[in-house]
Each structure stands twice: as structure tokens, then as C-alpha cells.
Amino acid sequence: MDDTKATTPKFDTPSNVQITTLDNGLRVISQPMTTVETVSVGVWVDTGARNETKPLNGISHLLEHMAFKGTERRDAYTIAAEIEAVGGHLNAYTSREQTAYFAKILKADLALSVDMLGDILCRSTFEPEELAREKDVVIQEIGQAHDTPDDIVFDHFQETAYPDQSLGRPVLGSADGVAALERDALFGYLKEHYTAPAMVLAAAGRLDHDRLVSLAEEAFGGLPSGQAPRADGARYDGGDFRADRELEQLHLLIGVDGLSYDDKDFATMQVLSTLFGGGMSSRLFQEVREKRGLAYSVFSFSSSYVDGGLFGVYAGTGPDEGRELAEVVCDELRRVCDGVEADELARAKAQLKSGMLMSLESTFARCEQMARHMLIYGRPKSIAEIVGEIDAVDEPAVVRCMERLLACGEPTVAALGPTKCLPDYDALAARLN
User: CA 136, CA 123: separation in Å to the nearest integer?
Assistant: First the structure.
């Protein structure tokens, strides 16, 4: 799908948010919250599964695990004990485009948390015995994912939408691939991708920005200042994946090419997803579960990347209901093109806005949002700006967005379980057109 870029107007930095760029290119951003006694602080790195070559699939996630397994100054136990001794916690996650390492602590322990984040990201040792042990842990995590059909079906969906490219590979990697990763590969990936300009240190809570910058300079001043390599561009293909497994339920995903973060219809797609299948009052829930009783779990979703995205529907159902469910989902997607009601649009917009505003009462949510915005847009968006984008979505825009999504060409279908009950791929594709 052609990605139509939004025209970005000039916006000011959100109120009381401060940004400082260190000499090596690391961006430090913070927002004080005077009504709390805690701070969330973390480092977001502009690298994830889509930055990996095929032989290195899973290395971003393994590296995230290994960061907690020992540095030049702390062993794995000391890392855990020091942060828990002050009542804080340290965690991390890996996605397809970003990796994050973060802590939540009391305001008095900001220096400890920044020092620890700098230690694990700049001085990890990846001791061979720890690496062997952690590879086994990750392989168990991969096995657990494969034993969870409503989880692993999303990986199959992603791979079918983006075949033979890094964006289609699983974040966890494969068991054989992870087992084959060597210690030198971790050091090489860290050196190449964890450069200061590709990283953002973000914090929110009871803090002082100037002190945060001083701590960041001490902890991260030694990071290399070079540019990290860019990931290959997203190439949506679509297609059909079905795997028969002896399961009580059929796990089904039907989706289409979506929109990037900077697409002019990005906010519209979010509103559309909420209106269509984002709650108990949504069209999908009402038609599939309440009126027809075809599924216990059914929802729509939209996921975006810097240069693409996906829009789809997940449902879990029994083998006797699979055919009708798939056909109803396709028909309901098409029916949005006939128009939407003012009240359902208002509900969807209210859900989106309230969900965002409620989440931002959390120091971590604010910290994460600022960091992600810096990596995606190069600037933080204000709450007023985001709310304004949602409020600007009208009924014709939702219809236009759905028409645009359905015009993508080949849809993506992924199914696990008793799949023989489903219509064939061509029949489903024709129903969407």
C-alpha cells in the first residue's frame, strides 16, 4: 500500500518536558510529575527484530536477557539485589523496532537506576556460562510461545504478511537459531546498533532534568557516536497460512496491509480499529459474540511501524463455527464502507482518549511515550496534539480509511487448529473485495 505521509505542522515541546542532547548524540528527555514520589527511567534503543539478519534472528531479545546477567562491576545477583534493596524494579522488553531497558524507583534512587542502566548497556560481559544458561531460558520461552496458540498465531500472521524479510520473523527467534548464537555476535550487534544517536534516555516522575543530564553524561558518555545501520524497508505481500493442530479451538487471524506512524490516516485507523472491534459495544463484538455466539474472544487490532503496518481481526472459535465466523468477519469489514453512525464514532473516540489519559497517570507510561515519540517522530507529542488528532476524525474519514485498507490487494490469513472448516483463501479474499 502506498504510504501517504502526513504534513507535519510545527508543534512546540509539550509543557514542562525538557530535552538535552549529549555530545555523543544521546537524547535525554524528562517530564517532572510533582504529585508523585517515584521516578520511571529507561533507555529505548532504535533496534529490534527487524534490524536482524536471518542468521541473527532473536539476537535483540537474547541481548536484552543478557544485559541483566553481569557487567564488569556487578554480577547477575548484585544487579537484582541492588535495585530490590531500595524497593525498585528493573525490567526490559524487545519489539520488532525497539528494545527498552527501564527501572521504577523512589525519587532518592535516581542516581542508582541511571548508573545501573549505564552499567548493563555499556559494560555487560556476556560470560560464557551465563550465555549458555540464558539461551536455555530463551529456548524455553520459545517453547512456551509455541504451546500458546492464541499467541503464536500472531507470529504466523506476521510472517505471512511479510515473508522472507526481517519484519516477518519472530522477535524471540527460533530454538535452533538462538542455540547457535555466539558471544562474539552479541558484542558485534551491541557495538553496531547500540550507538548514542540511536538511543533515548527518558524519565518521568519526581526529578530534576539537569541532574538527570549530569547522571546520563557520567553513565552513557562513553557510548559510540556513530549512526546505527537502518533496517530494510517493509514489503507487505499477504497470503495464507494454515496449520492443523489438535486443539479445541480454531485460532484465526484475517488482516490487511496497514499504515505507518506518519501516515495521514494513522489516527483514523486507530479510531476505526476501536469502533470496529475494540470493546463490548463494538460492531465486531456485537455481531460475532452477542448476536451469533460464534466466539468467546474476538477483537480487531492495528499495529504500525515506521514504514508500514497491519490491520486485522483475531477470533477464537470452535470447528463448527469456523466457516460462518470467517465469512461474518469479512462481511463486517466490508460493511464499514457503507457508513458509520455518529454515536459509535463518538464512543470509539472517547475510548481512545480516556485510555490514553488514564494510562498517562503512570510515570512509566509517560516515560515510555516520550521515548517512543522521540525515536519515531524525533520529538515528543503533547497530549493536546494527540487528542486533537483523534477529535479530527469524522465519519467520512473512517469510511475512507477502511476503503483504503481493503484496497491493499492480497489479505493475510493465519489459522491454527481445526482449519479444514474454513473457506479457502480465494473465497475469503473475494469476500473482502
Answer: 23
